[in-house]
């Protein structure tokens, strides 16, 4: 990242924290203004709605321009110049991104993010086109090559422009690339374990700007998911990671070894527990998020292999248990001194509750609303009709 | 951990900007010595409610003959009553203003109670047909009851469910609307129902705001209403003869919405208007353009012009970050 962009990023982190303190009532308007004067912001930023609009129309304009220029000068998808043109265009857009972040001091502005994304798309697409042309007898090598190139490009973009999403993309592309080699599953286990201590240290490093620290957390989340997929029983039995090698396997297990099967069973059970234990101990969100997600996945896996009870019992009891656990946790945390225990509290600290409520409303409208009745050619009376769906289910009586 | 904030807090205290008594708690949060799991607990509660309602759905579907309709109806009804009684017991007194939730679980247990009650009503209607030939009205009854619960217990979440249930009564749901729109299968009745629902929701939002009664529900009604109006009109683009009428309608509505939203600083509505207006204009132009190259030129030039206009509009509107 450029030094000025890194400084602006650090200042933005303080300003954002101050705004959340003010929204939570911890400080007054005057204090917020004083803090914002102390840590000035020299970046050109826009709010979330305009950012979204500018992102959308920049993606549209950038792609339309390439289409126009290509049709004007070449007009042939088989033309060998397509790969070159895509790469040249990708570099041009990368230059424009650099210009916007550097000279124009844009940040959280939508346009520079859109241009960087389109630039990466054209660079990876152009390299992919070349890889397919060069290795035309083996698409497998070409795919490995493209995944490696994508990992490098995403990593470079995350390092230079500070987008955590690209860091996560780089980690995912790297995992997919190594999965294409023999012993890919082992890489998926070893690489995250090796990277974890380094990523944890970097995610707290004062020397890195916030964007790079967030990038380390994004890589950590992808690495932990990769680790869980590698040890997961379903993935072991279906040879999911081995499928990525591209050799037709017809869902054969990763290995016929009983020992490895039992290790996979143990891994499916233990990884979520370990992640949640680390989350409680270190109070790190990546472990908490992936821990909860993998715990749900492991319980679903348990239900798939062991039929303890009918589906409706499992769903209802799990739901009631989940609600009960939340009540118990809330009570446990609230009963501690200052409503906290071991550094955790159920009280909202300085978080954006309005955004969370908005997400809930969106989810309710899309997933909890009943299925619409059929309006055209509606019968006057049809006993046995009528539907109601809740929680994603559709119940027809 | 946020080292930049952790480093800044002592400096802000030293320079007299931040009151010293505030610093310790802020510092603990910045150093990750104190972490809130409020959001995570809410998400788990929401997920728990989804699991329970899905379980009830499967129960009704798979065990109808074994358990018997009366037992199922009574069981679901009792569960719904239990949830709603708990909500009524802990709920603060009614007010037309915004009322803070008494606790973390309040909204979700209310949601659970409403969903179970709705499922029970639907089930009773199907099995025992108390509404007879008017069986389709049960969705309206559910929508009204859900709406009343939303107002009484001040829940925007349940209010959004009431609106979407009302729309379902008129044949509109997100899933069906999405697929029908993609495959250009939306019938004329559903289209006009969607538009009418949209107008009704926008009107309801306006009335709530104007009367200052549950005015904080207004954004839910207005956003959903405008989405229904614009998407409803846009489903007419596939019509062989009337597509021009529908496209012009989207163009005019989008432009009017964007202008009004610009005036009143309503950012999401401004985005709806801009996207709808641009899509409609492009639909009209696409019909006239035969060559792909001119299509690319159109999208490049207009998107670029729009970007400059948006930058200028943003400077005037000053959306908070």
Structure, described:
The complex is a heterodimer of chains A (397) and B (321). Chain A is mainly α and 397 residues long. Chain A has 15 helices and three strands. A two-stranded antiparallel sheet of chain A has the order 2-3. Chain A is globular. In chain A, 43% of the residues are buried. With 321 residues, chain B is an all-alpha fold. Chain B has helices at residues 3-14, 23-30, 38-62, 64-67, 69-90, 106-128, 138-153, 156-169, 174-182, 188-211, 218-234, 243-264, 267-288, 292-317, and one strand at 35-36. In chain B, helix 5 packs antiparallel against helix 6. The radius of gyration of chain B is 25 Å and the shape is flat.
Layout of SSEs?
The complex is a heterodimer of chains A (397) and B (321).
Chain A: H1 3-23, H2 29-38, H3 48-73, H4 81-102, H5 111-134, H6 139-161, H7 164-179, H8 184-203, H9 210-231, H10 233-238, H11 240-243, H12 258-282, H13 285-305, H14 311-334, E1 344-345, H15 353-368, E2 387-388, E3 395-396
Antiparallel strand pairs in A: 2-3
Helix pairs in contact in A: 1-2, 3-5, 4-5, 5-6, 6-7, 7-9, 8-9, 9-13, 12-13
Chain B: H1 3-14, H2 23-30, E1 35-36, H3 38-62, H4 64-67, H5 69-90, H6 106-128, H7 138-153, H8 156-169, H9 174-182, H10 188-211, H11 218-234, H12 243-264, H13 267-288, H14 292-317
Concise synopsis of the structure shown:
The complex is a heterodimer of chains A (397) and B (321). Chain A is mainly alpha-helical and 397 residues long.
